[in-house]
Amino acid sequence: MTSDIRGRGRAAVTAGSEAQAALDYYLILPAAGPDGAPAEGIVVEEFALTGDFRTVGLDTTGWTAADGAWWSSAAFGRAMREDPGLRARARAVSRLDAEAAYRGLGGGELPGETRLRALFHDHQPLPDSPPLRLSPPRVPDGFHDTRVYRLLFAGEPNLPRLADVVTLAGEAGDPRTRVIGTGELRTDPDAFTWEVRRIGPGVACCLDLTAHLGTASGQALGPLLRRLTTAMRHAGPVPVTVERFS
User: Fold this and answer.
1) Which of 178, 169, 183 is nearest to 201 (CA)?
2) pLDDT tens digits along 158-207
3) Most buried one in 40, 69, 133, 176, CB count within 10 A?
4) How far apart are CA 240 and CA 160, in angstroms?
5) Is the whole-model pTM more than 0.85?
6) How far apart are the C-alpha atoms of 184 and 168, rounded to whole Å?
């Protein structure tokens, strides 16, 4: 099997350690203070997915250094996506960085992911619907199936960090530019292409993925969606949902 990701900064999309972390980790930075000030706490999240990788729910738990306690809050998960001020304070990190921050804040050893899942008590259901088929899928010769997904994010990406996911368009810095970058991946027998688009400057963005699958299993699709979502999170936006269009 061979693979090739086009564009600069390929390591962020293929990072093994981050791909192995099933949960999403964030540091919540102080609202005001000098650069480098310690985080106020840690947030851990996980999306519930259907068998074809659409999102149907979100679980959010957090720990704050001020009281040293874990809490579960669907409202906080919504606020991270709806409140630009809070979103600006949420910095996506790897599990290794979350472990280091947790120790530094006096929490000790960060619980394992099984234990963290047990802290999810306030589940947030998300709207679900069958794939929105805008038009009959056109499956190229040599492939078994074609799927189109939209990964929706709140916020604006940091363009230099976005270069880890896509080859940036020449006018990517212009807020009027809709398609700000493209990427592709070939993992025999599958082929994937994607575009990152602005949806209102500073408000939201999305990654539209077209997957041409060489087999019925779609074995490579789930890990790729995970890796792309992780890379986008590290570029700044906060994931909202994954929709399937075909």
Assistant:
1) 178
2) 999 998 789 999 999 999 999 999 999 998 899 999 999 999 878 999 99
3) 40
4) 22
5) yes
6) 13
